Structure formats: C-alpha cells, structure tokens
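hi! just following up on the protien thing from before. the input was this:
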Amino acid sequence: MPLPAILANLPLPIIGSPLFIISNPKLVIEQCKAGIVGSMPALNARPASQLDEWLAEITETLAAHNRANPDKPAAPFAINQIVHKSNDRLEHDMQVCAKYKVPIVITSLGARTDVNDAVHSWGGVVLHDIINNFFARKAIEKGADGLIAVAAGAGGHAGVKSPFALVQEIRQWFDGPIALSGAIATGRAVLAAQAMGADFAYIGSAFIATEEARAVEGYKQMIVDSSSDDIVYSSLFTGVHGNYLKGSIRNSGLDPEKLPEADPSTMNFSGGEGAKKAWKDIWGCGQGIGVVDRVMPARELVERLAREYAEARKALLAAA
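and the predicted 3d structure came back as:
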C-alpha cells in the first residue's frame, strides 16, 4: 500500500512525537521547517481556547514559510488527541482541529470510529498509538490509517514488546504506514527502524533537550546527564506503565527502586491538574538519551539525524 500523500515525500522519515506539557507551537514549527513531522498534544493548550490560537499560529507560520521557500516546503504537522473517556475536552478539540483541517491526527489510549471518520471528513490522516498486535488490529478495524508501534524503551507511556517482534507481527497482515517508537535518537536508528519494516521513526525524548521545548532547564539537563540506566518503568504515576527519569523520582522524595504498582482505576488522561502534576514533577523519558550530550536548537538536532541517516545509508550500500 502506498503511503498517504501527506506522508509520502518527507525529506526525512521522522515524526516528532507529541510531548505532554512540553510540545508547543515553537517546537512544532521548527520541527516541520527542518523537514520532519512536528506534533503536540491538543491538551497542552490551556485553557482550551488557546488551541485555536496555537493552530492559527502553526498554520499561518508554516504557510508563510512555504510561500518563501517553494523549493523546500515544511513537513506537515500533527495534533495528538487522547480519546480515553477521562478527556472531557475531546469534542471541543476535535472541532478546532476540523476548523484548521489538521493534516495528521495522532490518537492515543483508545480507538474510536467516530474520531477517525471526523478526521477523514476534512481529508486528514489518523495514526494510532499501539503497544501490541491486538490493539493494532483493533485500531485498523476502527478506521485508523496507520499505526505508531510503541515498543520497549519509549518515553512516557510505553509497551514492553521488542521492536523486532512488534513490527514483524504487524507486517504479517498490515501494509499501511507504521511509525516505530522506542529509544530512537540517532540517524542510524532511523534507518534500522526502516530496515525492520517501519516507514518512519517516532522520536520524542531527544527533542525534550532542545531550546524550543517547553521543559524546565533541570529536565533538559537531566536528559543530557542521563543514560538508559537512569530510566525506570512504573505504573505508579498515571495508572499505566511508562518510562521516567530516576532522578526526577528521587527529587520528588520517592525511591525509584521501590515503587508500588498503581491501581488501574486511577487512570487519568484528561490533562487536568492531577495529570499535569504527575508529568510536571515526574519526568517522562525514553531509553535512547545516552547520545544526547547537550541542549541544542531543534533544527540542529534534525540536521544531526539527517547527517547520520545519510551516512548510515551510504555505509550500508557500500557494504552490499
């Protein structure tokens, strides 16, 4: 199956993942101008009315960039919608997305036919987060156009499946778009994701340590100073397992080696104060951060990824 037109001609096969609290129009715009899909959660806009302002800023800025650079247009952007029942803003935020005809909508924590149909009505594409083959089938059955395979090592809410196992199981029955998430932070890893069957790499944690990201400086520096050994997998903070920086857990007065399991009934993805506090004080992060050695502009990070990707492709062809 050919890729949807909106995703078919990206300069670099990368989607910047939506980062709760952290992604903002400034980061999204820089990602898109650099040639990768930039994204953010709709819930990052607070109050809800701010989403209209942010989407106006993104669409107008990228349109101006494209007029000024017809030979090098920006990549499309994406908005993440949490479709879990605790998100009482979903209907409002979908209406705003419809107003701006958001080209790509990333859905998480539940697949819904009505949401997919709404996105398709304005010509958009839906990519759905999944952590296993069962949820992948459900998402496609309900009308998603593509999948984001969230494998072991991904930042924030993540699965436990090896990326090799997850992608190969999906590829046995699905030939549509797949983005792979999980500890990808180099151009070599982007090429490896494609080699195992994915179309795109889905990269988040490395972008937290960029100048445009709306993260506190301590968060960014902890990513620079940390490695995969400094990541812990826990369900305590939101009711669903995710990967977090051990240092932020210690700073909150907890022992990252002795965290209890959460009651699944405590799940809250509404983006309200309780959920915000968990992500504000306990910092989500994936296992790929060992290569992040300093805070840099988002464009510079994309340029490094592009250079490494090109070098890896060249080396692979030379060895063939």
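The longest strand covers residues 77-82.
The radius of gyration is 18 Å.
cheers
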